[in-house]
Design the sequence.
């Protein structure tokens, strides 16, 4: 006669069968995937198929970069038009730079706010809300009539920059440790590409087109810049709705469904933020990201103005040259993430930290060279390599982020992402108060100094840059790849 369980009276063997059946019957939206997945990492994909658009993994991958791309596009749609706006409204250099600083500064709050909510409501809903909201002030660009209204408008448009948090969180939620660095870098880089495309499309294509459309107006240039931003605003609003209806928060479904069916533990936004903010590694990466993404944001605001003023180019010519910086995102950020993943495979976290350090040091050196380059052709060549290292460093930064504290990845991604905007504000103040050469020299020196901070990054269970423990780099199924928060750790965080 078989033994029985005291609590249930069921035979022990039956109890084990029931347990197995319960585990097998765990709720998830999809029973099969088009990509290979790791069940031990919450069904995250172990591969990236760029030509695949299927749900949930690759749909989230593509919507991540498309959503961030259009967000970046509307965020900086006004940048190549600033010289025209400056002429129309009779603004001085400080007033123009104040609007640029406000435009990136307002995003700091959004990134801090959105990070913890990614851990609780998921990236899909937040993507939709932010894109649809930011499209409204973008469409209202034509109502600007003073320096103050320009600054206020750019403050609200700057909300679009918060989509970066969802972009990086979403792919961290969909892909395993082996490929998360590459996935994060690709979607971030292709999204950042919007900063280059907007320079070209808005400044060199749509603006001249709208001038032609309004050629019979008393001032065709003014009428053109007042109307042209309606186009990207409409596109952004529509893409926001598409993301909501045709994608998923996680491999197993949307967060509200997962919580309802007991597949996902409930972590409070406050607890997530507190855990991420109290981790010192978060702030080292905050500073380093300020010195790469912050530099890119600064260049998005400065490049067209710099080339127009320093080399006496037209608005269209300066915008076309400035767009080169953003176009490097097509592959540069992905390269940084790829190098980080490869270094991790050979050396563990130590490899990722070395890649991060080298990329930042080279970036800073090239900024110093750019500051001292007097010719137009030389400046363009140096800017290309300068941009390559800027965006590669961004990619390597978010190759490290998912390891810092996996259950609070959303909050940490938000804080570090806010570092990029903080850097843009700080560097923007330099460009507002100083001439271009001095501002670039200060920026380059700060970047070089930030590369040293990698030495102090110490993530539990991972190797340090010098000394410390060793990673098990050969293990096939690692466990540090941003796992879904387990109930026990979530309860500890919520009770803290």
Sequence:
């Amino acid at each position: 006669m078989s033994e029985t369980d005291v609590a249930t009276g069921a035979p022990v063997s039956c109890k084990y069968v029931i347990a197995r059946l319960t585990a097998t019957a765990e709720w998830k939206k999809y029973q099969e995937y088009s990509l290979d997945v790791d069940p031990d990492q919450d069904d995250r994909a172990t591969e990236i198929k760029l030509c695949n658009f299927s749900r949930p993994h690759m749909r989230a991958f593509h919507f991540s970069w498309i959503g961030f791309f259009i967000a970046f596009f509307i965020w900086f749609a006004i940048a190549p038009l600033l010289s025209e706006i400056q002429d129309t409204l009779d603004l001085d250099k400080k007033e123009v730079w104040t609007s640029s600083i406000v435009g990136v500064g307002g995003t700091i709050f959004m990134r801090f706010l959105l990070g913890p909510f990614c851990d609780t409501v998921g990236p899909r809903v937040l993507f939709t809300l932010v894109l649809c909201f930011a499209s409204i002030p973008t469409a209202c660009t034509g109502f600007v009539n003073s320096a103050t209204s320009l600054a206020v408008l750019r403050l609200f448009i700057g909300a679009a920059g918060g989509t970066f948090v969802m972009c990086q969180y979403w792919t961290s939620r969909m892909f395993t440790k082996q490929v998360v660095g590459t996935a994060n870098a690709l979607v971030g880089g292709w999204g950042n590409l919007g900063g280059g495309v907007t320079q070209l499309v808005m400044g060199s294509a749509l603006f001249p087109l709208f001038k032609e459309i309004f050629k019979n107006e008393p001032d065709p240039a003014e009428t053109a810049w007042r109307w042209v931003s309606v186009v990207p605003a409409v596109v952004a609003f529509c893409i926001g709705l598409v993301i909501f209806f045709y994608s998923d928060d996680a491999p197993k479904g949307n967060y509200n469904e997962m919580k309802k069916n007991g597949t996902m533990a409930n972590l409070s936004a406050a607890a997530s933020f507190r855990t991420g903010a109290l981790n010192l590694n978060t702030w080292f990466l905050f500073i380093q990201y300020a010195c790469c993404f912050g530099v890119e944001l600064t260049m998005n605001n400065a490049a067209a103005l710099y080339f127009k003023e320093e080399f006496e180019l037209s608005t269209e010519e300066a915008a076309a040259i400035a767009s080169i910086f953003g176009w490097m995102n097509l592959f540069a950020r992905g390269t940084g993430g790829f190098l980080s993943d490869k270094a991790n495979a050979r050396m563990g976290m130590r490899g990722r930290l070395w890649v991060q350090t080298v990329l930042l040091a080279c970036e800073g050196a090239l900024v110093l060279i750019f500051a001292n380059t007097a010719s137009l052709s030389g400046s363009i060549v140096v800017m290309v390599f300068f941009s390559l290292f800027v965006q590669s460093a961004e990619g390597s930064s978010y190759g490290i982020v998912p390891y810092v504290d996996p259950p609070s990845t959303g909050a940490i991604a938000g804080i570090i992402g806010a570092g990029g905007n903080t850097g843009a504000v700080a560097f923007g103040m330099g460009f507002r108060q100083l001439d271009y050469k001095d501002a670039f020299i200060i920026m380059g020196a700060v970047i070089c100094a930030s590369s040293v901070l990698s030495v102090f990054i110490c993530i539990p269970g991972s190797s340090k840059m010098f000394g410390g423990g060793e990673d098990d780099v050969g293990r096939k199924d690692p466990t540090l790849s941003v796992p879904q928060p387990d109930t026990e750790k979530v309860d500890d965080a919520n009770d803290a």
The two ends are 49 Å apart (CA to CA). The CA atoms of residues 16 and 22 lie 10 Å apart. The beta strands are 37-38, 44-45.
